[in-house]
Amino acid sequence: MTVYLNGKFMPIEEAYIPVLDRGFIFGDGVYEVIPVYSRCVFRLAEHLKRLQHSLDGIRLKNPHSDHEWAQRIAELIERNAEEDQYLYLHITRGVAKRDHAFPGPAVQPTVFMMSNPLLTPSNTLLESGVGAVSAVDNRWLRCDIKAIALLPNVLLRQMAIDHGCAETILIRDDAFMTEGAASNIFVVKNGVLLAPPKDHLMLPGITYDVVLEIAATQGIPCEVRRIAKGEIFTADELLLTSSTKEVLAITTLDNKPVGEGLPGNMFARLYKHYQDYKRDVMRKA
Ligand SMILES: Cc1ncc(COP(=O)(O)O)c(C=O)c1O
To answer: 69, 256, 58: which is closest to 147 by C-alpha?
Structure first.
């Protein structure tokens, strides 16, 4: 596996960072995950825009222009064997003596990229759907920043795994649903697709946007609004979306069936159109 670290491509075994890297010490950095299908990057401009938003959110200067990112990403894809890859981009505030305050003067940020094989959900999972549990959203108030400090998300996702499930659906203030531990969540009720609004309490998912665009072009009734806690427990369908999971049905919540307990019509429609959209984008690339 060839990775990129601070301007150089190298085998992963040779990629090291100093222990005083602020990413290691403070979790002081941001990241992106970008899917690549048949060696074509999916929605690069949107991912780079979100990366810029995350960097602005932590007051870190973008080390590269979009053109420089695109060149480096193209080379990383080229240097790795798989046709379908998922790229991980990671930028930290760099290496400095341990002090919470930003280093002054600023130091070089650490830039790391790697590629892994993209394994989208198996047919079995697509047909059965996955289980989810619900939990209190105990994260900070800037969930719109794709921060590398993921300990709350790690603990919340592990809660699902410990219950034999795939995802944890997060409830803020005992009142409304925000997202999953590592995905966005959609609710379906009476044929309407409900999506929480993009604000500081959830990550603005790239897949989330694609799903809403598909809903608009397919004339699927859609409401973007706060989703009350009670609505997830009475949903006809629940869907999760992310770059690596794409669109997946959640068929149990807290051990009880969601709707009929099987992936529903809305899932089938959105999944099909998502696959069509991907093929379309790749044909144009
Ligand atoms: C907390 C969280 N929300 C939502 C998402 C989905 O975002 P995207 O569709 O851009 O992958 C992710 C992706 O990993 C995530 O970690």
So the answer is: 58
Active site residue 189: no
pTM above 0.70, yes or no: yes
Q: Which two tokens stand for residue 92?
A: 């930290």
Cβ(148) – ligand 1 distance below 6 Å? no
CA dist., res. 192 & res. 175, Å (int): 21
Of ligand 1's listed atoms, the one at least distance from the Cα of 209 is 9
Which member of 49, 146, 229, 256 is catalytic?
A: 146
For residue range 24-77, what is the model confidence (pLDDT) as tens digits? 999 999 999 999 999 999 999 999 999 999 999 999 999 999 999 999 999 999
What's the domain range around 195? 123-284
Reported residue count of the chain is: 285
**Residue in the block written with tokens 């480096």:** 72
Last residue of a domain, one of 101, 117, 133: 117
Of the residues 49, 89, 203, which should be mutated to test ligand 1's pocket, given the most ligand atoms within 8 Å of the CB?
203
Q: How many structural domains are present in the chain?
A: 2
C-beta of 184 in contact with ligand 1 (< 6 A)? yes
